[in-house]
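Fold this sequence, please.
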Amino acid sequence: MEEDGRQEHHRKSRKNIAERLSSAGLNPQEDAVRKAILTAFAASGKAPDVQDLARTLGLPLASVLVACRTLAAADLIVWQDDKAHIISAYPFSGSQTAHEVLLRGQTTRYALCAIDALGMPCMLGQGVRIRSMCYFCGTPVTVDIAEGLLQGVSPSTLAVWLSEQDGCCVAEVRCPVMNFFCEEAHLQAWHTTSPQERGRSLTVLEALEVGRAAFGALLT
């Protein structure tokens, strides 16, 4: 029974964000706060202030704080409780990362990882250019997406690591290693240096579909 419990914990901890959202059992007010946070990130690229959220939604500040704590407990946002501050909200990072997403090719947002960057256009229904780098050698990489479809990849040999590590906070456990690699050989060379990392290599098309499944319906 103990082994069954560990396996169930591992299965749950590997859920993508769509699955975590489905399991969270949010009430309508909590879900409204969740969507308002994502909308604010998309509009400004910054984490919204909880007081601004309360004013926007016409809710008491206390209700917004409770909702944020619920979202954080479900690993739908990254939250600093002692400062009542939203740090990030998947797929958006509240600070600069290696994964720059240019909405409609112009407005810069930052994603928490490569999969989040690929999921962002699916969630927003916008064309984007993703600019990042090979995690192994630093070679610049770009991915162009329009109408949810892959339009261009440079270099054409690009690969993506999908982490399957267990942990209660994806932003801390998986996001740091879910990166782009300019070619499969460099992904494998990196993995040789980090054999403890559990996961698998994806093509960009495969990674885009993982991003779509995770983020495509988060604002519907």
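The chain has nine helices and eleven strands. The first helix runs from residue 2 to 13.
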